[in-house]
Here is the input.
Amino acid sequence: MRARPPPPLLSLCLAAAVVAAGSCRDKKNCKVVFSQQDLRKRLTPLQYHVTQEKGTESAFEGEYTHHKAHGIYKCVVCGTPLFKSETKFDSNSGWPSFYDVISPDAIMFTDDFSYGMHRIETGCSQCGAHLGHIFDDGPRPTGKRYCINSASLSFEPVDKNNAGEGSSSTSPAQTDKTEL
Here is the structure.
């Protein structure tokens, strides 16, 4: 079965995103860089395989596949916030799925031609960690499905007692940059 090429509009948008975020594709120019030795110490073998070797965890076996708690999903390598739990949905794909990112700057996109098909790979824009792939079969309002490996994520629960409607209960010194 041949994979269909992405719709022209998605291709154009993702091509622009790759150019804008592409500075971290080879990990030499990432904003956050870790030594391979440090990563092997800090990450589990599966987390290392997924994030550093572009691996994939087994379907339906990831820690966050059926996770329903409220909070923020972050990059397991550098801690960059990636997804809000409110955007998570059950895609029945076997991997955690989200229809939107926390910030357009959080994710970088790269063409992936592995396994004889064309897909769009998603990676952390700060450290270059492989996250998963994006597809055009998600729910409204975006129509996107960020299909993400649990092994590439960590989770920070929201304290419902302190979190307001806009979750603006962050430190007053919050800036544009993610504190790592």
The first helix runs from residue 8 to 21. Confidence is low (pLDDT under 50) at residues 8-23, 163-180. The first strand starts at residue 71 and ends at 75. The radius of gyration is 16 Å.
